[in-house]
Amino acid sequence: MSETSSRIIKIVTKKRYKNKYHWTDYFSYFYLFLGVLLMFGPVVWLGLSSLKTLAGIQEYPPTILPLSQIQVNVDGYDKPLPIFNVTQEDGSVKQLAQIKRIGINAKMVDPLNPGKTVKVPIDKREKIREFKIQWENYVDPLRKYDFLLYFKNSTFITVVATIITLIINSMAAYALSIYEFRGKNFALVFVIGTLLIPLTIILVPVFYVVANFGMINSLWGVILPGAATPTGVFLLRQYMLTLPRELIEAARMDHASEWAIYWRVVLPLSIPAIAVLAIFSIMWRWNDFLWPLIVLSKSEVYTLQIGLNAFHGELTSQWNYVLSMTMVTLLPIAIIFAYLQKFITTGIASTGMK
Amino acid sequence: MENIRNQIKIFFLRILNIPFAFLMHAIDLIMWPIQKIVGVRNMPYIFLLPNLIFFGLFVIVPLIANFFFSLSSGDELLFAERELPTTKQYDQLFDCESYLNPNTCTEDFFWRGVYNTLFFVVFQVGLMIFFSVLTAVILNKKIIGRGFFRSVFFFPVLLSPVVVGLIWQWILLKNGAFNAIIESYGGDKVSFLTDPSWAMASVIFVSIWAHMGFYTLIVLAGLQAIPPNLYEAAEMDGTSRERIFFRITLPLLMPNLLVVFILASIKGVQTFDEIYVLTGGGPGTSTSLIVQYIFTTGFASSGSVQNFGLAAAASMVLGVVLLFLTLMQLYFSRNKESKHQEI
């Protein structure tokens, strides 16, 4: 009897997948582990390397942490020389400074006795390292080059463009969601239609329009062409359609002007959708590249993205500065993402746009 | 503690609200008389006006102007000083002995761009969809730390093309981290970005790295829309996981994937930024796509004159391709909606 009942219990509680690992489970974790390495690795690597000295960055094979070789000043030599632990023929280890490397041998000198140089095979020496963070990588470009100005330009474009975008797009969305009027469908089709025309196919004529307004090499030439976004109008309209009409009727009864209804009733209620659009707009503007590249050709109006690209083109060997400034360019977006990732992901998932 | 934090938040929000309210009151001073003049009935037109002006100036007018640019010749930007009308640009663009061999064309740079774009889009979109679906299916499982993994795969989407280009250019250097890893496993160094046979593969890889998260998110949304009772029924019948994937998940995801496919193709055809930073279209012309051609002929010809007409003609060709893809998207997304209504 008890045997049967326990068997019944076993059959009832038995689940095919519970506590049993399928090969797909192992594969999933393996894949995710690889994914983290591949997706996150490059940025972590960038962050760590931006704290290395130039010599440390150019070292091959590279070290993971910012461990730079210790250098000493030796009498009779202009530049500080790197020191090595050298294994002598009798097995003892001595610290020597390297003057230069010739093939498989290195010309080295004892820092305590700078008069005499010795030849050492390179496989007999080992680098002496210390943990050192090179903050100069971040400070120097901001001081010596115009990166602060670029940063300011980028911030100006991002802030002003986002404010303009939010105001005019929410106005259009308000008209298209709250009112019934003649030509509404036409206006809607018009807005959706512009969604289908990307900037890449009208580069020349938009440049022509901007040039006619005299906005070449001006930050406004970057801000204005993308201020009205069909994505934004659409996103806000979808949200505003869900607001209760009674509120608007009530406000109208109280003799509120239409503009007052818009900014005192509808806007505050649409904050979630406006926040999503604001994040999108900040992202678009901060990362924008092709259009600023065309409009801005003088270095005093460069944005961070254009400045970074130009800087890299001019000074290909200065990877320490390029890496640190890449980090500075990436950071604002990374911080925004860390705080607001829910908004961003739901925004993208619900609109299918970015 | 919580209370104090909230109060501080409200305080800051109020301060932020002051300039906003000030601006809105100021605009009201203009809008109120306008409302008196045109009446409440016509106010929506006033609200629509700023947006429509921007659309008109920066989308509609340029779209029409593009025709005229592509049908005119000359070095000047102003229409008054251009030669009109002429089909010279299109003649030059399509002047080929054989369309299959870019070397026989007058504008061989353009035709190389066309073929490179085709190659790029086929592989980038194909591989990206494969990996997006794989990632989305795995992220849709009950795994530990799902939120963390999801943001890991998503975050490269937010990086700017310049940042993506520079990071990978540096990692893929001959003496870069990637080659160090390859050598430590006994392989040979590869010049990923300067060897013509590797450059395109590297560019495709980086492009997938940068955009995969976006499509993963869309596929994930599609996966979550599949009714769970289908899975429950299958599980009750003892269906194997492989069968569940191929018989339930994949067929129900298909309409979603079609839209993703077209969306990715539309974006892929227009790729420019990352490649421009990563390889600059080189070595030679091995990674230069159509938009790179438009940009170079229209705005960045070093030494020679900028040819706006030719650039406009090339964008018209690109526009036709995009129009075709967009119509396909509209057709399929309409089909998808009607199917949903049937269910």
Plain-language structure description:
The complex is a heterodimer of chains A (354) and B (343). Chain A is of the alpha+beta class. Chain A has 2 domains: 57 residues, SH3 type barrels (Roll), CATH 2.30.30; 207 residues, MetI-like fold. Helix content of chain A is 60%, strand content 12%. Chain A contains 15 helices and 8 strands. Chain A starts with a helix and ends with a helix. The mean pLDDT of chain A is 82. Chain B has 2 domains: 87 residues, no CATH class; 240 residues, Orthogonal Bundle (MetI-like fold), CATH 1.10.3720. Chain B has 13 helices and no strands. The longest helix of chain B has 37 residues. Chain B is globular. Chain B starts with a helix and ends with a helix.
Question: Secondary structure elements and their pairing?
Answer:
The complex is a heterodimer of chains A (about 350) and B (about 350).
Chain A lengths: L1 H12 L9 H27 L4 H5 L8 E3 L1 E2 L8 E7 L5 E10 L2 E6 L2 E9 L3 E3 L1 E3 L4 H9 L2 H32 L5 H12 L7 H10 L6 H5 L6 H11 L4 H9 L4 H12 L1 H17 L2 H6 L8 H11 L4 H33 L3
Chain B lengths: L1 H37 L4 H28 L17 H6 L14 H32 L6 H9 L6 H11 L5 H8 L11 H29 L3 H9 L4 H29 L3 H6 L11 H10 L8 H35 L1
Summarize the structure.
Chain A is an alpha+beta fold and 354 residues long.
Rounded Rg of chain B: 26 Å
End-to-end Cα distance of chain B, whole Å, is 50 Å
How would you state the average pLDDT of chain B, rounded?
A: 84
Number of strands of chain A: 8
Key descriptive features of the protein:
heterodimer; A: 354 residues; alpha+beta; SH3 type barrels; MetI-like fold; 2 domains; 6-stranded antiparallel β-sheet; two-stranded antiparallel ribbon; 15 helices; flat; B: 343 residues; mainly alpha; 13 helices; globular
